[in-house]
Write a structure and sequence with these properties.
123 residues; 80% helix; mainly alpha
């Protein structure tokens, strides 16, 4: 059974989508700005390690590497969200322009129908 696309498109609250598109883009930019900030350097300095603390040091190094990997992933996810928000903004702007164009075309067609009907009645 095919999806009735016209029904789906009519169900979308386009006015709300259009109103919120700039807010979504701004939030994505804020998220991107926060994600790309450099992390604060660690406050503790690395001192000489004795033999009993070696496993703990290895754990700390592994956690630092994992934290750096998570930071890279967060930045990549933020880039993606920012790009999607920008695309969403452009899409909403194009939809709004198309909506205005369709509205104008409907008026032009209505005027032409009235003119043609008037012409047919006179002849």
């Amino acid at each position: 059974m095919p999806i009735p696309w016209l029904t789906v498109l009519k169900a979308v609250p386009w006015t709300t989508v259009i109103e919120n598109a700039p807010k979504v883009a701004d939030r994505a930019r804020q998220l991107w700005g926060q994600a790309t900030k450099k992390p604060a350097p660690p406050s503790a300095t690395h001192t000489a390690v004795d033999a009993t603390a070696l496993p703990l040091s290895a754990q700390v190094d592994a956690l630092r590497a994992q934290s750096a990997d998570l930071d890279r992933r967060l930045i990549a996810a933020s880039e993606l969200i920012s790009a999607l928000a920008e695309q969403n903004t452009q899409l909403v702007a194009r939809i709004e322009a198309n909506r205005r164009l369709v509205r104008r075309l409907v008026w032009v067609v209505a005027v032409l129908v009235v003119v043609v009907v008037g012409w047919l009645i006179r002849s």
